[in-house]
Design brief:
Elements (H helix, E strand, L loop, with lengths): L6 E7 L6 H14 L4 E7 L6 H11 L3 E5 L6 H11 L4 E4 L11 H9 L5 E5 L7 H18 L12 E4 H6 L10 H7 L5 E5 L14 H20 L3 H32 L11 H29 L13
Parallel strand pairs: 1-2, 1-4, 2-3, 5-7
Antiparallel strand pairs: 4-6, 5-6
Helix pairs in contact: 5-8, 9-10
The structure holds uridine-5'-diphosphate and magnesium ion.
The site of uridine-5'-diphosphate has 17 residues, from strand 1 and helix 3.
Length: 320
């Protein structure tokens, strides 16, 4: 019988050879004890250590394990995206491979999606076991993301441990450093019931963190682009067109005013500089040219967004 699975557990990993056997065993024990059918999806993000060999060995004895390996390191978002595409369980859980997240949280996460009807439950590492150099920027990141996204009930957007309804992961796409904003992306896609669960967090047992300061900076840049695309992505002309029109109009009004001054001076026989001798005229000229450029940019962006398939990826709420 081909029963639908309760859970797909997606684990992105990059050089985590030491943790994998323990993680697979722990996940299996928790699911078995709680009578949850599951598949464990390891996405090897181009590891250069023995991770893949370890996975092959595990696969020999664990029929619930599926794994894919990238040719090179594409980043955590790409790994998650691939895991999302492969997932088929009613509930999809993501967790880090390094045993910092606890598989013991799985049953409660599952329950909140299935019983309480959440679209997404994000873990909150309330007591973190990471150095201050990491927790401080994270605090800042979380408060900025909270205020920009309007998702004010989350404290820990970037927690690797999260649970989703299957439909959610099938409706979103993440790349670059966007895994940090999955709740935001899910909200943009129309999934509003987003909750949080305090989860245990252990210090890293083996290996070392893969994320440094530069990823934080890239992360902030991604945040700006996500918001921009989310707000104007479908109709870029609304943004560029408005800016262009304002700039053009400002330049036009200044020019008219200069011409009017000159005409008034002529009619009253007073001395007044020619329009083209006024510095203000050149400012107006720049504003007019910039206005036209913005308009053209909007036009090109509109063409690009029309040709992208994403444009038709509207989320259907229900069908009767
Ligand atoms: N990871 C990945 N690709 C990368 C970097 C990290 O798949 O390019 C995985 C990593 O193996 C781990 C998870 O993403 O399973 C979180 O990474 P890490 O533990 O280094 O992050 P931290 O806990 O320090 O935030
Ligand atoms: Mg970690």
């Amino acid at each position: 019988m081909n029963r639908k699975l309760d859970l797909s557990i997606v684990v992105p990993l990059y050089n985590e050879e030491e943790s994998l056997p323990e993680l697979a065993e722990w996940v299996d024990r928790v699911c078995w004890e709680n009578k949850l059918s599951y598949e464990l999806i390891f996405v090897d993000d181009g590891s250069t250590d023995r991770s893949w060999t370890v996975i092959e060995d595990l696969k020999a004895t664990n029929p619930s394990l599926t794994a894919v390996k990238f040719r090179r390191n594409y980043g955590k978002s790409a790994a998650l995206n691939t895991g999302f595409a492969m997932a088929s369980g009613d509930v999809v859980i993501t967790m880090d491979a390094d045993l910092q997240d606890s598989p013991d949280e799985i049953p409660e996460l599952y329950r909140r999606i299935v019983v309480e009807g959440y679209d997404l439950i994000s873990g909150w590492k309330k007591e973190r076991h990471d150095p201050l150099s990491k927790t401080l920027p994270t605090k800042l990141f979380n408060s900025v993301t909270r205020s920009m996204s309007g998702i004010d009930n989350l404290h820990d957007f970037n927690c690797g441990l999260k649970a989703y309804r299957l439909e959610v992961v099938k409706s979103i796409e993440v790349y670059g450093e966007m895994h940090r904003y999955i709740p935001v992306i899910a909200k943009w896609a129309g999934f509003k019931k987003i909750g949080e669960q305090v989860v245990k967090h252990y210090p890293r047992k083996y290996g070392k963190t893969k994320f440094g300061m530069s990823r934080f900076i890239n992360g902030f840049l991604d945040l700006i682009s996500i918001f921009f695309v989310g707000k104007f992505g479908k109709r870029p002309m609304h943004f560029f067109g408005t800016m262009g029109a304002l700039s053009f109009f400002a330049g036009f009004v200044i020019t008219l005013w200069l011409v009017y001054q000159k005409l008034a001076a002529i009619s009253s026989h007073t001395e007044y500089r020619d329009v083209v001798d006024q510095p203000l005229f050149y400012l107006a000229l720049v504003a007019i040219i910039v206005g036209c450029q913005l308009f053209l940019t909007g036009f090109v962006a509109e063409l690009v967004s029309r040709s992208s398939s994403e444009r038709n990826n509207y989320q259907i709420d229900r069908v009767i």
